[in-house]
Design a protein that fits this description.
Helix content is 14%, strand content 20%. The protein is α+β, with helices and mostly antiparallel strands. It has one domain. The strands form three sheets. Strands 3, 7, 8 and 9 form a four-stranded antiparallel beta sheet that branches. The chain has a three-stranded antiparallel beta sheet with strand order 4-5-6, with no helix packed on it. It has a two-stranded antiparallel ribbon with strand order 1-2.
Length: 171
Amino acid sequence: MKIPSLVAVAAAALVTLSACGSGSSSTTAQQPTGASRGGSGSALSIAQTSLGKVLVDSQGMTLYVLSADGMNQSTCSTQCLQFWPAAAPSHAGKLAAMSGRTTTPDGTAIATVDGHPVYTFSQDQKPGDVNGEGLNEFGGTWYAASPTGQPVTSAPSGASSSSSTGRGYGY
């Protein structure tokens, strides 16, 4: 297995992404009415992707749910969180679902939307990427989170999904 090399690639990607995060970028994210992006609190919002409208974090990165998670219960532990970082608890403005928080098995705080813990994916390089959609890893299947917090399980009519079969990373 090549897990150590994948960890190194994921770590390098996260360092690169964090270095790029301070600039402004154009995105299709729609700021919900009444939500604030300033200050120490970050806001969840909605963006248009190839899968349709999905939840995104304050950087415009797609948020995902894991089918193995329970209501307000994350099953993503330390190794999982290296590839699927926990979305920081925040406020959701006027989304169609309630936002909250819980913790992962290692105690990391994570945002929830309608009770579903939400994560980003280390292999998404820019806002609008949905590279984690449909991956079967860490005990379940990963899906982009819809504006209601439910999994997006298929692309809208006439759109193509960026996910493909057979691309699991072998964890």
